[in-house]
Amino acid sequence: MYWMAIVALIGACQSVLLAGMFVFHKQIGVARLWLAGLCFALSLVLLDSFSYQISLQQQYPHLLGLVFPLGLVFGPLLYGYVTQLLKAKVKRGLYWHFVPALVAVILLLPFYLQSAGDKALILQGDTAQLTPWYLQPGIVFIMLANFIQGPLYCYLCWDKIIKVKRTLRDLHSPQFHAAFIWIMVLLAALLCFWLLDLLYLLFDTFNLAPLPVNAISDSMIGGLIVLISVLSFQKQTLFSPALSNSAAQSTLAVVQDERGESHHMPAKYQRSALNKEIADALCQELKTHMEVDRAYLNPELSLSLLAQHTGHSTHNISQAINQSLALNFFDFVNQYRVQESKVMLLRDPSLAVLDIGLGAGFNSKSSFYAAFKKHTGATPSQFRKQHAD
Where is the HTH araC/xylS-type domain (predicted)? Predict the structure, then answer.
């Protein structure tokens, strides 16, 4: 399959170019470094496949096994990239995730230090040399770690993005939606590679027909590299933090600060200079602004945007709403949107429910239905039927 060797070489070169571009293009954010690491690791896998297919390892036996531990870095690199893309702070503890790869290298040192002749015997398939003692610990460790890491890092990445998605359920940012789809593609790729390893092990264990692992994996990696190359022109999808816009940032901050705190004053407000009288006055000003200017009709309305319009700090606005109304920011805004949609539902029965929700300031069907049911106890359609008479 000479053509597969060519594909592997082209893919490796393209991946190296991408990694270099990401490293030196500092304007596109920190997430680029994690993606650069992924691309470089993929290029090494493709180069190893290329050297195997053209029998380069037989000429230079010391090339054998150099990428064995590499499978243990894909999970941590993907997790770091997802974390950075969601603009969650990457903690130093994340670097401990690379310890298994380091352990694998240490366990394989006895193999790496063998002579070229001993490694050549393994390539030649000598039954006495297929699994020498100095190779077994490293191989067993890598196999076990790979089978654990695949589903583990899929879960960790999935859990992280779902938590953010739930937190931002009232804000459907196109940028976050694009990042969500992209991360799902990466997780699907990681899961496919894991399943491929599992199938190969099963086929080998039960002496089934040989599975063309190299051809399948090289094709998958090549497709992923092409996708990254195409999307690299859409910098917001690959590199810009999904929470970089002001609406998303303020949403995340407010929900994290106020979740579960709507019925008592948070400890962080106890020393604030915003006493009850001032908080009530500010809250009345906010109500007037919402009723007169109808700011709630803006689907991108955020705490920071409201602060700009009213001239107050985000902290004081958040405290006033929480302290005086026992609401968080989004419940405060959504109550006006729900009231607007109730009027529209009864005023124009021929108007589609979704159009009403969008016209009232909601930016998705799910957020509209969730907020409407929370404030009225019924769905928009049920509300319209109940008041039809």
Answer: 280-386
Query: What would the mean pLDDT of 154-166 be, rounded to a whole number?
Result: 86
Query: Under a CB-based contact definition with an 8 Å cutoff, are residues 360 and 297 in contact?
Result: yes
With beta carbons less than 8 A apart as the criterion, state whether 282 and 312 touch: yes
Per residue in 96-108, pLDDT tens? 999 999 999 999 9
Closest CA to 330 of 294, 366, 357, 367: 367
Instruction: Write the DSSP symbol of residue 56.
Output: H
Sign of CA dihedral 175, 188, 141, 156: positive
Residue 211 vs residue 301, higher pLDDT: 301
- Residue type at 171? L
CA distance 110 to 17: 33
Most confident of 27-31, 76-80, 231-235: 76-80
Cβ count within 10 A of residue 341:
26
Q: 18 and 41 in contact (C-beta within 8 Å)?
A: no
pLDDT of res. 263: 43
Which stretch of DSSP H or E encloses residue 365? helix 365-376
User: Angle of helix 314-325 relative to helix 329-347, nearest 10 degrees?
Assistant: 70
d(CA 155, CA 160): 8
Distance CA 69, CA 143 (A): 10
Per-chain mean pLDDT for the chain: 83
Question: From CA 87, how far away is CA 80, in angstroms rounded?
Answer: 11
Give me the domains of the chain, ranges plus CATH numbers.
2-238 (1.20.1070), 246-386 (1.10.10.60)
Closest CA to 86 of 151, 31, 39: 31
Dist CA 89 CA 84 (whole Å): 7
The residue count for the chain? 389
- The confidence band for 196, taking pLDDT boundaries of 50, 70 and 90, is confident
Q: Quick one: pLDDT at residue 268?
A: 47
Question: What is the tens place of the pLDDT at every residue in 103-126?
Answer: 999 999 999 998 888 888 877 764
The whole-angstrom separation of Cα 357 and Cα 172 is 14
Give dist(CA 124, CA 290) in Å, integer.
78
Helices (H) and strands (E) in the chain, counts: 18, 0
